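name: query_chain
kind: protein
chains: 1
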Amino acid sequence: MNFFQSPRYFLLAGLLGASLYTTASNADPDHLTITQGDQLEEVIVTAQRREQSAQETPIAMSVLSAAQLTTQRIHSLSDLATGTISSLKVMPWTNTPTTLVLAIRGNGPGDPAQATRDGSVAVYIDEVYLPRAQGLAVEFADVERIEVLQGPQGTLFGRNATGGAVSITSKKPTGKWGLEQTFGIGRFDEKRSVTHLNLPEVSGLRTKVDYVYSERDGWVDNTAPNEEDYNAYRKQGGKISFDWHLNEQLNISYAYDKSKIEASQNYFQVERDFGGALEEEDGRQSKTRFPVTPLDPSITEHESHNAVVSWSISDTISLKSISAYRDLDDEARNNYAGTAYFNGFVEEVDRYQSQWSQEFRLAGSKEAIDWAVGIFHFDEDTDETIRSLYSLDQFGIVTGIPLTPIIPPTNFDYLATNSVTPDRRILADTTVSALYGTMTWTPDAFQQKVKTDIGIRYSKEEKSGRRVEGGSGDFDINSEQLNPSIAISYQWLDDLSTYFKWSTAYRAGGVNSRSATLTPFDEEEVSTTEIGLKSEWLNRRIRFNTSVFSTDYEGMFIDVADPSNITVVETINAENDVTVEGAEFTLTAIATKGLSVTLNYTYLDGDMPLQPNPLQGNELQSFVLSQTPRHSGSLALDYTFAPLSFGTLSAHFDIFSTSDYNYFPDISAPGDSYTLYNANITLTEIPISNSKDVLEIRGWVKNLTDEEYRVNGLHFPGALTNAVYAEPRTAGADITFRF
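structure:
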């Protein structure tokens, strides 16, 4: 049944409407005791590739400002895993913490680590597309805001945005002298240093330098001497930005950044051992089941160049060029000792990826129409090599000592095959060219209360490559896509509007690098029908936005493991269409003087019909939608106390809760429901001298109740079930100097 025809839709719409009416009508301005200046800040976004108010944009979205990121101590995309945005799910890819799995509204990739397939959430940094999940845990340089766009974004954000898009915008150089230095400490010997330096403007040229360094010991002790502990990391990165204002019409900006992450893997716990050979580990562990060696850190490095030229051709027409080059070098090192009955099994994965992209965008306005047209070209080269290294004495038969460490590792699997296991190497090239256009029409009819947004994008894509070893041959996949969208909004009041939107997107087809035959799979095509409301009340003291939606997937990607060899995985397109229906809302309010409240909630109801499994004779099989909790929500409270003679004191408290959900489409990989509590208290604007130099001190705690919950795991049929747990309670303090 279509969601918009079901009783649940009308019930939910009624409840949300009643909630909105009650919030607005019961709020007494005298009781709130709020001054005229106490208003919610206007949120400016670029979701439609031009600056506009989020309240005027017919897109369901969540936005985190620089102040919110600082308050909630969000330093990277991995920090969003705690659930700040209820519609966005972030989790590490199995036991590789620097590779992230992103899902929006239940649409997430099964395996984002492969060079031959793509995720379902498009990530952009300063309008540059990042196709690879490796290194997404890198710390931000200096972010102005993060926009999370919910639902298909195939018109303006193009390929691989079937779930939505995450757009990260960096702060630009100010042109005025300024130095901000932060030092932080925390549990597990966490240390952090962040430097932001703005230099004075010279002949229209503004310059900014950012540097970030952080490290932390692991919180699962590896009992092997002189080896890494699990969950340890060292991150560093630098960025230099130039903004050259040549004249009133022409501006050129350029940014260069480089980063490096060294991180040891997440710890795989043995939750269930069907053979009884290993001791099962109940609950989150703080030390390993036996000494694990070698345990080398994974190393991810990236380097990028980004140049933007903005030219105001006239008062109503502008041209923008975005040129970018980026390369990624990823060396993943994982040891599966004891998790697959191996005495020792080390997987080494080396990936190199380079990309360049060019976009030209012409935008303008004339009378009742705002428009933009553009061309986009993207080219990517990847080289991925996977080595499986086994101990000569997997089961301790030769030494007589079970679980003997791998010293030295070798790729000679003596007991299993009595032959050499070859490296698996994949070379892949991707080329994408696209034309797009969008138009917002506000006719004089209906007193200019009706707006129509129309968008369309034509994409042509080629993905080719080969697997070097094994004589598996080449693959060459070509596709063309036309993705339209339309949204109609009506401005009932100055601060109240509703919209209807239909949007489409696609996820590029490809091959699974774990496939035995490199069998290609086709595109995944998505369309969403959505009804939304955006409103502000009591002179912008209450903001309430909500949407209900129904998303249809044609050819959804499903990963299927070969039951006779679980290391062989095929990706298939679902023959039967999949549907996800749901609703979400955000309520932000200034409840009383100094106190603001933010409430997010997302409801998801997925329908995954039985699908034929080609690895089992096309027998109909049950699968589930991964990363699709039925309920998830968050509540944040921010309170600023009355000014003190020596500074301003504020406190933040937030709660996130989710029902359980599966990590993967495999029905045997269920996750946990959990609730997290986080808090911090900040004393800011502490004067250092008679100048404008100030000091800020913040104490913080995450996972206040030390909740134990799983964030990922693997199931080996008939053998083992493993799980990765989230980090325990952490706490610390930050001190910031601003000169």
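note: The helical segments are 7-26, 29-32, 66-71.
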